[in-house]
Amino acid sequence: MTVAILTLLLLTALLIAWWLHGDKLRAAYYRRREKPLTDHQRRQLAKDMPLYPRLPLAQRRKLEGLMVSFLSRVDFIGCEGLAVTDRMRLLVSAQACLLLIGRDEPAYPTVHSVYLFEDSFVNKAPHYLPGGVVDTQGKHLAGESWEDGRVILSWAGCLHAAAQPFDGENLVVHEFAHQLDQAKGLATGAPLQQSLPDAKRWQATFQEAYQRHCQAVRGGFYGLIDPYGATDPAEFFAVLSELFFERGADLAEAEPDIYRLLVAFYGLDTRSWH
Ligand SMILES: [Zn+2]
């Protein structure tokens, strides 16, 4: 009886401690799992991601710190028989954390799992078409970002994105830009800003550029920005983020106001990378 009461008291104390200090305990637990990158991992990353060795030293060190934290906390799950390797974990985390190297925040605290497919995958959720038609065949996709902290990626797409750092397309940057947008809930193309004036500036500049892009796509005269950006404001933000990290100078020339907005948001000027 005494043992039962003591056990109950101990469990109650643990529950109270978890309730009061859960975040700190979790952070301490994950900090113990953090391991600095080895030279072998750095060499592997430099081979797969030519941008990594080109980054200024301070940004490279910041990237590595974010990766170490990300890798200690996020589960990587191979799908349809894919065996997840250290190379895969490295390359996904490096490209995901690239978005944060100029920002003062931890590495995606809301992301808990990355699902990797060898190549494209099929989203089997019913797709509602105009006229009430329901398409249950599914669409082949390279990536998805879910609001509950899951990201789904094609490994072939991750490899290609890293190997071609200046073509203006990057699957991982795209999906993790959605995660930044989704940190507040639904992806809307208006990620959280530092202040109300920043949010108002974002809204005005971004909306104007989005409407202009939609009009250009309807007329068939779009330029640098992928027509997929006209899908909705969330996709516009993700597509612009890909350009910002891969073709910063071109974006600055084509859309100087948008570029300035992204420089303020990402805390970076990427023109010097290319
Ligand atoms: Zn998207």
Automatic annotation (TrEMBL):
<dbReference type="InterPro" id="IPR024079">
    <property type="entry name" value="MetalloPept_cat_dom_sf"/>
</dbReference>
<dbReference type="GO" id="GO:0005829">
    <property type="term" value="C:cytosol"/>
</dbReference>
<dbReference type="Pfam" id="PF06167">
    <property type="entry name" value="Peptidase_M90"/>
</dbReference>
<dbReference type="GO" id="GO:0004177">
    <property type="term" value="F:aminopeptidase activity"/>
</dbReference>
<dbReference type="InterPro" id="IPR042252">
    <property type="entry name" value="MtfA_N"/>
</dbReference>
<dbReference type="InterPro" id="IPR010384">
    <property type="entry name" value="MtfA_fam"/>
</dbReference>
<protein>
    <recommendedName>
        <fullName>Zinc-dependent peptidase</fullName>
    </recommendedName>
</protein>
<dbReference type="GO" id="GO:0008237">
    <property type="term" value="F:metallopeptidase activity"/>
</dbReference>
